[in-house]
Design goal:
- The chain is mainly alpha-helical.
- About 65% of the residues lie in helices and about 0% in strands.
- The protein is built from five helices and two strands; from the N terminus they run ββααααα.
- It is elongated and about 165 Å long.
Length: about 280
């Protein structure tokens, strides 16, 4: 579109920058954006203390070759042969002896009841007759079996059980008013003194029995492994059947003896724990 010059009034083309008649600029340059005025205000900052940090020097570590730790097998205490034979012998008679101890305790209980007047002497004789019959039969059986001598731990344990049982009966008499407090205290002190004498040796003996039990159980596992190996060799034709049967019987006898000894040790240890409770 034509543009009219504001100064001279002449018409010019719209693309003219200046009027061709009077030279007036017709198009103003685009206004440049005003630059923001920045006012710098200098403020004195307080001096910061200079902190010096000590850097710890990491010591140079020597390179060491990694070593794999291999767990060492637990050492099991080996039982002397004479001790093992004795344990096996005690295992064969242990259950029978347990029955004998129970019968003796039953008789002691009846005797105490007769002394305090709960039952008559005639009733004591009547009720104790079958007990004594079985006691005599057991003693005869033990004699025929050639019962082995008791271990020191068993003797000490039997003594402890006796003293504990006596203290219990004394307490019953005290509650019933059969004895005075002073008599009760004197007798209890006497029994406690006997218990203390045997207590230390008894604990040491039971601790030794626990070691023997661990050894026997490890030995039993070895015997079972041998039994399984024999069976495998027989089945693959590496061992004649006849030889297998012979060796199998030998192993079965050893395993049975082992179980008898373990049963005996477990029984004694359990008896000891009962008295501890």
């Amino acid at each position: 579109m034509p543009t009219i010059c504001p100064r001279c009034g002449q018409r010019t083309e719209d693309w003219f920058v200046y009027c061709k008649y009077c030279g007036l600029p017709l198009k103003q340059e685009l206004e440049k954006p005003k630059k923001p005025v920045t006012i710098r205000v200098e403020v004195e900052e307080p001096e910061k203390p200079i902190v010096t940090r000590k850097v710890k020097e990491t010591p140079k570590t020597e390179k060491k070759e990694a070593k794999l730790e291999v767990e060492k097998p637990v050492e099991v205490e080996k039982i002397p042969d004479d001790v093992k034979r004795n344990l096996i012998g005690r295992g064969k008679t242990y259950l029978i002896e347990n029955r004998l101890r129970k019968l003796n305790r039953d008789y002691e209980t009846l005797k105490t009841r007769q002394l305090v007047g709960e039952i008559t002497e005639e009733e004591l004789e009547k009720r104790s007759e079958p007990l004594w019959q079985e006691i005599n039969d057991i003693k005869k059986t033990l004699g025929e079996m050639g019962a082995t001598e008791q271990l020191e731990v068993e003797v000490l344990l039997a003594e402890k059980e006796t003293q504990v049982e006596r203290k219990k009966k004394l307490e019953e008499l005290l509650i019933k008013g059969e004895i005075r407090e002073t008599i009760y205290q004197k007798l209890v002190s006497e029994y406690d003194a006997k218990l203390k004498q045997a207590e230390k040796k008894l604990k040491e003996g039971v601790h030794q029995m626990e070691k023997w039990l661990v050894s026997l159980k490890a030995e039993k596992q070895e015997l079972l492994d041998q039994q399984e190996m024999l069976m495998a060799k027989m089945k693959i034709g590496d061992l004649p059947v006849k030889e297998y049967e012979t060796q199998k019987k030998e192993l079965e006898t050893k395993i049975k003896d082992n179980e008898l000894a373990c049963q005996f040790l477990e029984g004694v240890i359990e008896r000891f724990r009962v008295t501890e409770d």
